[in-house]
Write a structure and sequence with these properties.
The chain has a 6-stranded antiparallel beta sheet with strand order 1-2-4-5-6-3, with helices on one face. The protein is built from 3 helices and 6 strands. Helices cover about 25% and strands about 40% of the residues. A hairpin with a 3-residue loop joins strand 4 (about 95-105) and strand 5 (about 110-120). The chain has a single domain (about 30-135), classed as Hotdog Thioesterase (Thiol Ester Dehydrase, Chain A), CATH 3.10.129.10. The chain is globular and about 45 Å long. It has helices at about 1-15, 25, 60-75; strands at about 30-35, 40-45, 80-90, 95-105, 110-120, 125-135. Keywords: Hydrolase. This is HotDog domain-containing protein.
Length: about 140
């Protein structure tokens, strides 16, 4: 619990109400990179993020997948909100670093469809999500 308290205090001190620096991005220590219409988000897996079975909680996984797609939209198309998202869990994660790579499936005038794939530090699939976003 001390580790979570330290991360919370660091996030409070360094957060800003903006993309890449909002509180939860700081709390989960998300790192952002962009490529040719892709957004890559890396996150260290800490034990305070675990479910009772000792693996990365599905809600944390979905959060990181969603953030990768939201940041992809913001970078290349503008601000958007998630209309719906489907997450498929493929394997558990016990530690290390996870990486999400988000890409566009279809870009409309107001509706955007994307996918994001999460891998563990060995490059093995952890989860994937497809989502529909609405451009603001």
């Amino acid at each position: 619990m001390e580790q979570a308290r330290i991360k919370f205090e660091e996030a409070m001190a360094t957060q800003a109400n903006d993309f890449e620096t909002f509180f939860l991005a700081r709390f989960f220590d998300l790192k952002f990179k962009y490529g040719d219409e892709v957004c890559i988000v890396e996150a260290p897996v800490e034990n305070y993020m675990f479910n009772p079975q000792g693996t990365l909680h599905g809600g944390v996984i979905s959060f990181i997948l969603d953030v990768s797609m939201g940041h992809l939209c913001k970078k290349f198309l503008g601000s958007a909100v998630t209309l719906e998202m489907k997450t498929q869990y493929l394997s558990g994660v016990h530690g290390g670093i996870v990486t999400c790579t988000a890409a566009f499936l279809k870009k409309g005038k107001k509706i955007v469809q994307m996918e994001s794939r999460m891998t563990n530090q060995d490059g093995k699939p952890v989860a994937m999500a497809t989502a529909t976003f609405y451009l603001l």
